[in-house]
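Q: Please design a sequence for this.
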């Protein structure tokens, strides 16, 4: 992300994705998994806050966003779409939960090892679910380099 114009306007979740990429290049797959899951959770928080502001009070949104990520995805998407994310995109949700969320939890809580293939599957699962939720995020992956 170094050298990008308007860096302060880059969403935090996008910065975390960049950190994950750096960890990938360094072959630090455990750190990559942690950054990927963090990026996903920040993305969801931003997405839900944006879509729920007109429907719910700020206090209710804050209450929701303090819940576990599974509860946030269930309750938040019921408010937005009438059913939980796990029912809207069942395959992508299962892949995210197994390949990213559960793996991240095992890294953080049990010190699990992560190999290259696991990191690749996690990366794919995060990008797939995020782009299903909001296809417009592809625009955030374009970057502009300041003129030298």
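A: Design:
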């Amino acid at each position: 992300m170094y050298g990008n114009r308007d860096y302060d306007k880059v969403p935090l979740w996008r910065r975390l994705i960049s950190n994950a990429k750096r960890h990938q290049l360094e072959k630090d797959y455990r750190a990559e998994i942690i950054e990927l899951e963090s990026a996903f959770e920040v993305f969801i928080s931003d997405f839900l806050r944006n879509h729920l502001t007109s429907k719910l009070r700020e206090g209710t949104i804050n209450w929701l966003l303090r819940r576990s990520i599974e509860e946030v995805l269930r309750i938040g998407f019921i408010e937005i779409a009438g059913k939980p994310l796990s029912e809207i995109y069942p395959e992508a949700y299962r892949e995210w939960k197994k390949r990213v969320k559960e793996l991240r939890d095992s890294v953080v809580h049990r010190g699990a090892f992560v190999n290259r293939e696991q990191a690749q599957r996690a990366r794919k699962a995060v990008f797939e679910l995020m782009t299903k939720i909001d296809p417009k995020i592809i625009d955030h992956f374009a970057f502009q380099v300041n003129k030298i």
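Q: Thanks. Anything notable?
A: The chain has one domain: 11-141. Residues 144-148 have pLDDT under 50 and may be disordered.
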